[in-house]
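Work Package 4 report. The design task specified in the project plan requires that, given a folded chain encoded as structure tokens, an amino acid be chosen for each position. We show below one input record used in the internal validation round.
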């Protein structure tokens, strides 16, 4: 594909030879002839000057370099769109595999692809253009919207609701029982029946082996546009706001409310029955034991303002030196 055609498809301004043939995409340090790469972070400016890529997606104000450039306001997003020009994922033709088991009471929309060993139980409703890959299981009463894509080994439990354009990656479990137990008079744990549901709104993607538990009463809800990474646990009765990102191994305890446009980085843990406000960013491995106001950037455990945490971390590294100095000051001064 000629570079000029790539520029036109992305709506980018071309600086350089538009006749260059682009054969694929690569990271800036791995790219070679025929590759398109990108720079979204100024710290990679020197790498851009030395790249062997045929062309680089950059910000409009980026410096001139030897390679051709496609200049656009959001080069990272443009690179994501460019991938779609060069890679087409597998297509799954409409049809039902003979090994699939579909209850007669289920309703399946038009143009569905139902793969091998899929199980669709009683009173399930599935919208148009669904793709269910092998070993997907939909429990009784699940309601699924249009353009649903379930990768292999997805499970959607009873009475859960899934909106339109939802993607569940391999091994996602939506609506498993929440972790609820109460002690009886003899001190034994008695399971609390998880009678609620899990609701996933439109344009949500949940990645591999993540779990969203059903509520004991009421619902667990993932709102439109949220993205949930691998191995995330969303506890029962929790709510995740619009366009929020939960990165790998995040854990939300039960009845947690997370606002919209929040980013919880890898391994962030959030205690239950609390509120994380809109626009909050929690850096990796932050522990959140109490409410976080909207717009805050927090780190550490217990979570504190990120700038304060950075200062505290710097001081922590100096503690051995500080202790030595204090001990020296306390030692007798010798001969008087």
């Amino acid at each position: 594909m000629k570079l000029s055609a790539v520029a036109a498809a992305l709506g980018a301004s071309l600086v350089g030879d538009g006749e260059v043939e682009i054969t694929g995409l690569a990271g800036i340090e791995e790219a070679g002839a025929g590759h398109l790469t990108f720079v979204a972070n100024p710290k990679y400016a020197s790498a851009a000057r030395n790249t062997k890529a045929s062309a680089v997606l950059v910000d409009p104000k980026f410096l001139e370099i030897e390679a051709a450039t496609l200049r656009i306001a959001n080069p990272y997003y443009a690179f994501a769109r460019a991938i779609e020009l060069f890679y087409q994922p597998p297509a799954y033709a409409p049809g039902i595999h003979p090994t699939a088991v579909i209850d007669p009471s289920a309703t399946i929309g038009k143009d569905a692809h139902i793969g091998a060993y899929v199980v669709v139980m009683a009173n399930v409703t599935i919208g148009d253009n669904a793709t269910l890959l092998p070993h997907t299981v939909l429990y009784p009463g699940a309601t699924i919207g249009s353009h649903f894509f379930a990768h292999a080994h997805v499970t959607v439990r009873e009475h859960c609701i899934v909106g339109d354009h939802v993607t569940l990656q391999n091994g996602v479990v939506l609506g498993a029982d929440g972790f609820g137990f109460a002690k009886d008079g003899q001190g034994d744990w008695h399971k609390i029946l998880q009678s609620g549901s899990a609701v996933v709104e439109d344009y949500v993607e949940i990645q591999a082996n993540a779990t969203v538990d059903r509520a004991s009463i009421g619902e667990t809800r993932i709102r439109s546009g949220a993205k949930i990474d691998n191995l995330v646990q969303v506890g029962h009765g929790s709510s995740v706001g619009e366009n929020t990102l939960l990165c790998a191994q995040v854990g939300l305890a039960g009845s947690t409310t997370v606002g919209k446009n929040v980013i919880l980085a890898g391994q962030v843990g959030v205690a239950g029955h609390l509120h994380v406000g809109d626009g909050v960013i929690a850096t990796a491995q932050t522990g959140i034991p109490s409410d976080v106001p909207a717009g805050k950037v927090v780190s550490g455990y217990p979570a504190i303002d990120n700038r304060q945490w950075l200062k505290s971390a710097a001081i922590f590294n100096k503690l051995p030196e500080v202790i030595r100095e204090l001990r020296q000051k306390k030692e007798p001064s010798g001969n008087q």
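Residues 25 and 69 are 14 Å apart (CA to CA). Validation will be extended to a larger panel in the next phase.
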